[in-house]
Amino acid sequence: MSASSRSIAHSLSAILVFGLLSALQAVPLTGQQRSDLETLLSGLELRSIGPATMGGRIADLAIDESDPATFYVGAATGGLWKTTNHGASFEPVFEDQPTSSVT
Q1: Which of 67, 64, 66, 71 is nearest to 87 (CA)?
Q2: How far apart are CA 1 and CA 40, in angstroms?
Q3: Would the CA dihedral through 92, 94, 99, 103 be positive or negative?
């Protein structure tokens, strides 16, 4: 299996487990069902698989304590972004500068 195929398989596995666990919160399980599920999931090990590519990583996050709807996000690949609506949309803060690096 190629590295990209493994990455896709890991991502799909994580999505499947997350979806399964989310769905289970809404469905009451009997004692036997819970035991069977615990047995099924016991072989899975929780780990961070991170983004599949270099993009998408967040380097820092700063929240305005007086207005929690406003926060700033620093991307690892460069750029500083601001939201004033809890992250529904972002505007670049540093876009007009000759460099994407902020220190």
Answers
A1: 71
A2: 24
A3: negative
Residue 11, both tokens: 């991502």
Half-sphere exposure of 89 (CA within 13 A, CB side): 1
pLDDT (0 to 100) of residue 33: 84
Compute CA distances 46 → 23, 41, 49, 53, 58, whole Å: 18, 10, 9, 20, 21
Spatial CB neighbours of 41, under 8 Å, sequence gap ≥ 6: 17
Provide the percentage of residues in the chain whose pLDDT is more than 90: 5
Q: Tens of pLDDT along 16-41?
A: 666 666 666 666 778 888 888 888 88
What is the token pair recorded at 82?
């601001």
Q: Give dist(CA 96, CA 71) in Å, integer.
A: 20
Q: Which residues contact 16 (CB under 8 A, 6 or more apart)?
A: none
Domain spans of the chain, in order of start: 3-41, 58-92
